[in-house]
Amino acid sequence: MVTDFNKKKVLVVGLGSLGGGVATVKWLVDHGASVTVTDAGKKKNLEKSIRALKSCGKKVRFVLGRHDKKDFVSHDVIVVNPAVKISGNPFLSLAKKKNVPVTNDLGIFLGNAKNPIIAVTGTRGKTTTANWIAYFLSGKYPGAKASGNSSDDALLKLLPRLERRRNMPAVLELSSFQLELANQIRRAPDIAVVTNLYRDHLNRHGSMEKYARAKANIFLKQTEDQILVLNRDNEWTEYFLKRNSKSRLAFVSLDRPVLGKNSRFLVRANKRVIFSDGKTRRTVFSKKTAEKIESLGEHNIYNFLCAALAAHYAGVSWSEIEKKTETLPQIPYRQETVIKRKDLAVINDTAATSPDGTLAALRRFGGKDTALIAGGTDKKLKYSLWAQEVKKHIVPNNLFLLEGSATRKMIRELNKAGYFRKGRPQTFGSLEELLGSVKKRLETDDHKPTTVLFSPAAASFEKFKNEFDRGEKFNALAKKAFGR
To answer: Are 196 and 302 in contact (CB under 8 A)?
Structure first.
């Protein structure tokens, strides 16, 4: 693992347009590296990122619109953007043959950070969990915030801040893409959290086991003094337990507190929140706080339990966690309430990029008076269970679909489920056109919706840069269409 980049020739593969690649290049230049940036994207699509690197001057060379084989064997180190697929990549395979080290932003971070590290991964809930951990920590460590799987708070933007506050824990949200190379990194997080695992990103990883293996890298190098928090109710937890050998285990669950005589856990059972430190068990929150947690919806109860347990092991008292539970922040694009009035609620859940995300939203917001907006780009996921849940919660007149490769699979499964009967699916080429049709539906008297739920259950790349671009556009269009 390379930690010192001074006077090194570094090849950065994938600049991107979201800011993470820019943060990586700037950090490398600041630490004495001469950098070549190679990106298969065209220069015109990367202008914003290129402009952001003007201050680096001649220390950065660009190879855009292509990759050159010679670059992958002539540099000391290769740093890949997490969006770059590693498996089967011919250029990275060539580098491997020549023994050129390959790392990413997480590898650089873990090799240089001296602070305690709390890291969160999982298919669903990692953003919310990481942000709530940081919120719980903020009383003890003012300015604590989550970083990692976000262009706004890229990992290598965080390092300089941490150097000034060596006692403040770093709270990281980590994707499977970032974790793919973590098996070669010596340092592991002091507290690792795996919220859950569901079918997702199979277009990248190829199989659920390979996807799970990438996630497991978050705790693979943990020692017996480091903590691993797992979701006892998720079917993939047994897989993670088999791959773990040293971590101190702690679990969250909705109703399974008995996990062995010396088990550590935080569980919501019989409307109480019970904590075990392996020796004693006790109720840690009041009835009022327990009711507040219940109101979050099942998926967020898990997120809360994971966040609270991680924060407690990081040194925050249960009383401080309970106090902060009164003002838990709403996380943008995760079942975010965009409009709330007596006759209408508009919910933006653009971060639901897989069927499981939308299932959670349907169970919280679904009903005969709910309009669902879904559809997008396929990631080799299955939609049979999604179709059954849509049939159960959404009447056909209230389903609005945005065209895309996943949408075609959705329609096939809905037809198999007998959802449309004699009707036809409502599909739209643009979000603006779709919301115009939803607005007309709101003006009818036939069970007109009082909730509009935007929960796509698919990725967004056919029509948007990413799910956050999609979410931002939805908010603007929804306020225009439904605002008063």
So the answer is: yes
Whose structure tokens read 């991964």?
A: 121
* DSSP one-letter code for 45: G
**Cα dihedral 332, 148, 83, 219 sign:** negative
CB 148 within 8 A of CB 178: yes
Sign of the alpha-carbon torsion through 14, 19, 23, 26 = positive
CA distances from 424 to 386, 392, 415 (A): 18, 18, 9
Query: Residues 2-33: pLDDT tens digits?
Result: 778 999 999 999 998 778 899 999 999 999 99
CATH 3.40.1190.10 corresponds to the domain 106-325? yes
Check if the beta carbon of residue 350 is closer than 8 Å to that of residue 457.
Answer: no
CB-based contact 78:86 (threshold 8 Å): no
Query: How many angstroms separate the most distant Cα atoms in the chain?
Result: 70
Task: Give the mean pLDDT of 433-457.
Answer: 91
Tokens of 33: 């590296």
Strand partners, 148: 154, 173
CB 359 within 8 A of CB 388: no
Percent of the chain topping pLDDT 70 = 98
- What is the CATH topology of the domain spanning 9-100? Rossmann fold (3.40.50)
Answer yes or no: are the C-beta atoms of 263 and 241 closer than 8 Å: no
Cα–Cα distance for residue pair 441/106, rounded to 1 Å: 47
Give the homologous superfamily in CATH for domain 336-482.
Mur ligase, C-terminal domain (3.90.190.20)
Q: Cα(229)–Cα(222) distance, rounded to whole angstroms?
A: 12
- Sequence ranges of the domains in the chain: 9-100, 106-325, 336-482
**259 has a pLDDT exceeding 70:** no
Residue 401 CA to residue 216 CA, distance in Å, equals 35
Q: What helix, strand, coil percent values describe the chain, rounded to 5?
A: 40, 20, 40
Whole-number Cα distances in Å, 214 to 61, 183, 263, 272, 412: 32, 8, 26, 34, 31
**Triad 96, 101, 106: Cα angle to 5°:** 120
Alpha helices in 141-225 (DSSP H): 155-164, 176-179, 202-205, 208-216
**CA dist., res. 280 & res. 339, Å (int):** 45
Beta bridge partners of 37: 12, 62
CA dist., res. 427 & res. 433, Å (int): 10
Outline where DSSP puts E strands in 107-201. Answer: 117-121, 146-148, 170-173, 191-194
Q: Are 190 and 223 in contact (CB under 8 A)?
A: no
DSSP state of 226: S
